[in-house]
Amino acid sequence: MTPNQALEERVLTDDRPSSEDPVASAAALGAISRPPALDTVDRLANMVVMVLPLTLVGLAAWLSWGGVLHWSDLVALAITYALTGLGITVGFHRLLTHRSFKTSPALRGLFAALGSAAVEGPVIEWVANHRKHHQFSDEPGDPHSPHVDRGSGWRGAVGGLFHAHVGWILGGDALADEQHYAKDLLADPVVRFVDRAFVLWVILGLVFPFGLGVALTGTVVGGLTAMLWGGAVRMFLLHHATFSINSLCHFFGRRTFATGDQSRNLLWLALPTLGEAWHNNHHAFPTSARHGLRWWQLDPSAWLIAVLEHGGLVWDVVHISPERQLAKIAAQR
Ligand SMILES: [Zn+2]
Ligand SMILES: [Zn+2]
Q1: How much is the pTM?
Q2: Of these four, 91, 105, 142, 197, which has the most CB atoms within 10 Å of its CB?
Q3: How far is the CA of 130 from the centre of ligand 1 (A)?
Q4: Number of structural domains, the chain?
């Protein structure tokens, strides 16, 4: 199997091939594309994106302790969290990484722009790294596994979790080559435009809560505090919800499917991650539009896709039948 075929198998179909040796294909991949290293500017930018929201969360907590918290701030937080969060889960992840459904160029652009406003990197870089994660899942080559090269005992566990959560962003050495992992998106003019205009979406993601705050309170101060909550606090919360998929959901929780990696379903994280914490289900059926496969597995991202499908705005939605799920469980016995 060539590296390109291996990638298609892991990311865009539902069964991980048992014959494939991830280490061998990592070596093969290295022969055709060397992983890009982070330069100093990238490292610095990533550090700022990580530390600045944390500092501003401190400011927000201090202000609210002093009584400066308006209901409009929480409205701005809820709306911006939902919009940018769904941009990541429905847009970056289910639509653009795994092709769980199809939609119009306008909606594709909108989802990509909303996800960009989450400030988790430009869309093509995000997709490339996530596809590489699926290809190597907890084997050497995975950009953010908590299990690779971390040693044993509690030190290895803590070090692995830190690497999977934020360490890989600050100094990762297994990042994905966009030319190899996201050729389809590089050839998509809509996604390419959104990718290049990344900074614009980040700024709009701050202007929007400011405008909302001004509209709701009629004051500039109301706009500024809404921007603090709907910008910095939202960014911080959503970042760590997403990062938790990479760290916690490969470490804690239940495994329904024998996926060949350490992916897990983590119930308490389902709502904050808008349904992405059913991560073992997701590794078992990567293209499934639903990650919460059972009725009680809450998955707000899947609810949105269902509503859009009902309205005819998205189509060719990938559904995994209960029979297929049972067949997979039966096959692993
Ligand atoms: Zn994973
Ligand atoms: Zn995925």
Answers
A1: 0.88
A2: 91
A3: 8
A4: 1
